[in-house]
Design a protein that fits this description.
The complex is a heterodimer of chains A (154) and B (188).
Chain A lengths: L1 H23 L10 H11 L1 H4 L26 H7 L1 H4 L5 H16 L12 H7 L7 H16 L3
Helix pairs in contact in A: 2-6, 6-7
Chain B lengths: L1 H17 L4 H15 L49 E3 L16 E2 L4 E7 L4 E11 L8 E3 L27 E11 L6
Antiparallel strand pairs in B: 1-5, 2-4, 3-4, 4-6
The chains are: A mainly alpha (154), B alpha+beta (188).
């Protein structure tokens, strides 16, 4: 009898924990129609070099985690995110890529997302992708991040 | 002018008497065989090699199976389902396994990721191919499966590149195949 009562108590406690976790689960990211698809596109196209946790690999794929949304704080940052070589020359279509970008910003740097963040759309990406950045990308990255750090979030 | 004619004639006759009309085939054959071997040169990871007496794991590897009907196949063979896009040697033949590097090697955090269909449930799984680096490349159990592989001009989707980045040693030993998740079914 006691064993039973204790397991019931456990179940209630477990329920409370799960309930709390569900209540606190963040709202799905803006501009992401299908989270599973966004995750899969990230895994197949980006994760290999940017790593599971978005920490990146020196020299080829810079860190995303805790940084990527800061580009949205400064003029030119939005365009930069689409024109970096890995994004602009991706084999994904504009709509899938826009969804992936919105998901990635939320997944790896939601604390730096501007309050009034406008999600990327296919029509915004289309004219930017034919003009990929090359070697200048790395210099642009440090310039933009320096400006963002100086200005802070909008 | 006459001297020039004589010289030309002598050279041509000499050439004709020294060579057979069919020798062109041997030259062409050399070019064709050479051209076929050329693309393999800069990126080959060892290919087929003879059994090496110094190789601690030489000889036919013992079969490794999961014992789980949902994960069928011998993990020391190139036709095991998770190896559908592998280009390299199997760590299962080197004292490692399908998910772990052999002793003395380090797993690269930078990986090639693709999908393979599991014959047991006919679902596609997302597979990460991690290279194990820092050991000796004996070239055993070398596999060339290229599902979803793209040319070297798209390095992020090319599996011939050695992915020993972010590790202490850049010397390639073998490759493991980790399951990252189940892929979405796409409508065709």
């Amino acid at each position: 009898m006691f064993r039973n009562a204790s397991s019931v108590a456990w179940l209630i406690a477990l329920n409370a924990v799960i309930g709390a976790a569900l209540a606190q689960a963040p709202a799905p990211p803006a501009g992401v129609e299908n989270e599973q698809r966004a995750w899969q596109n990230w895994t197949l196209n980006c994760q290999g070099c940017h790593r599971l946790d978005g920490s990146g690999s020196a020299g080829t794929a810079p860190s995303i985690a805790g940084t990527v949304a800061k580009f949205l704080w400064v003029p030119g940052g939005r365009e930069y995110l689409i024109r970096v070589p890995g994004v602009a020359t991706s084999s994904l279509g504009d709509a899938d890529l826009a969804e992936l970008m919105n998901w990635m910003l939320w997944r790896f740097d939601r604390e730096h997302l501007p309050v009034h963040f406008q999600p990327f759309t296919a029509s915004e990406l289309a004219p930017l992708r034919p003009r990929p950045l090359r070697l200048e990308a790395s210099q642009m990255r440090s310039d933009l991040l320096a400006k963002a750090e100086a200005s802070g979030p909008p | 002018m006459a001297q020039f004619d004589q010289l030309t004639e002598r050279v041509l006759r000499g050439f004709a008497s020294r060579t057979s009309r069919r020798s062109i085939f041997s030259v062409l054959g050399g070019f064709i065989a050479g051209a076929a071997a050329l693309p393999l040169l800069p990126v080959a990871k060892g290919g087929e090699t003879e059994a090496n007496p110094n190789d601690p794991n030489s000889g036919e590897p013992a079969p490794q199976t999961s014992g789980n009907p949902q994960d069928p196949g011998d993990r020391t063979k190139c036709d095991y389902w998770r190896y559908c896009a592998i280009d390299g040697s199997l760590c299962s033949c080197y004292g490692g396994s399908v998910t772990s590097c052999p002793p003395g090697t380090e797993m690269s955090p930078i990986t090639w990721i693709g999908t393979c269909r599991n014959p047991a449930d006919q679902r596609n799984y997302i597979i990460s191919y991690n290279d194990c680096c820092g050991g000796v490349a004996w070239g055993r159990c070398a596999c060339q499966n290229n599902q979803g592989d793209r040319p070297v001009v798209r390095p992020q989707t090319n599996n011939e590149v050695t992915w020993c980045f972010g590790t202490k040693s850049q010397s390639y030993t073998c490759t493991v195949a980790l399951i990252l998740g189940v892929a979405m079914e796409t409508k065709k």
